[in-house]
Design a protein that fits this description.
With about 240 residues, this protein is α+β, with helices and mostly antiparallel strands. Helices cover about 30% and strands about 15% of the residues. Strands 1-2-3-4 form a four-stranded antiparallel β-sheet. Helix 2 packs antiparallel against helix 3. The radius of gyration is 85 Å and the shape is rod-shaped.
């Protein structure tokens, strides 16, 4: 194996083949042997000038960018929004289904029957019997020439519709004629009883009322008592 230290030159000794104290001949780019020290200086100067030019251009660009940036920052505020990415983990929530069973409450309301006792007061109205002529008057007059009382009793029986009394002092024909008419409530005026001049046993008793007159023909009946045989009307 070769010792590597053998390949290194001895310190302080020039390399072999190079005369000490003389610079090397030739140089880079000296292809035709005409370029010297001046040619190398020109190239370096050109390189330095180019570099300086590039630096100036970069400075100008930088100034323009900074100026525009300052102008933009003065005119329009720049809002920088950091995009935040939020990862939401899918969460599965299981809700337990709760079934609530409400107990049905049955309320039984007892029927309340209210019995209202109604007291009905029965009022018995006793109507008084219709007025009648006293039996003592319902008798024919027995005076020979004065049947006035019998005629007046028959008239009074008609005004109160007392047919029973009328039947005792008048015939059915006389009752039917007089009771067919209704009494107006205005009393009749008794005139008199006079012989009609035709039959001695017949006397007419006259009653005057508004608008006419009524004549009761009186005759002596059974028991020698006066009674009304017939009734006739005359209008004025």
């Amino acid at each position: 194996m070769t010792d590597p230290t053998q390949m290194l030159p001895t310190v302080g000794e020039p390399p072999a083949g190079t005369p000490p104290g003389e610079p090397p001949t030739g140089g880079p780019g000296d292809g035709d042997g005409s370029d010297g020290e001046g040619g190398g200086m020109d190239r370096r100067l050109v390189a330095i000038l180019g570099l300086l030019g590039a630096i100036v251009v970069l400075l100008v660009v930088l100034l323009v960018v900074v100026s525009n940036s300052d102008s933009d920052s003065d005119d329009t505020p720049t809002t920088t929004t950091e995009a935040t990415t939020t990862t939401v983990a899918d969460t599965t929530t299981t809700v337990a289904e709760t079934t609530t069973t409400a107990e049905a409450t049955t309320t039984t309301v007892a029927d309340t029957t209210t019995t209202t006792s109604t007291t009905t007061t029965s009022t018995t109205t006793t109507s008084s019997p219709p007025p009648t002529i006293t039996p003592a008057r319902c008798v024919g007059d027995d005076r020979d020439d004065d049947p006035d009382d019998t005629a007046i009793v028959f008239y009074d029986a008609w005004t109160i519709d007392d047919v029973g009394c009328a039947e005792r002092v008048a015939t059915e024909d006389a009752i039917a004629t007089l009771f067919r008419a209704s009494w107006s409530g205005t009393p009749w005026e008794f005139q008199s009883c006079e012989d009609n001049g035709l039959v001695e046993t017949v006397i007419e008793c006259a009653f005057r009322y508004e608008g006419g007159a009524a004549f009761f023909e009186m005759q002596v009946g059974p028991g020698s008592l006066w009674r009304v045989e017939s009734v006739r009307f005359r209008a004025d």
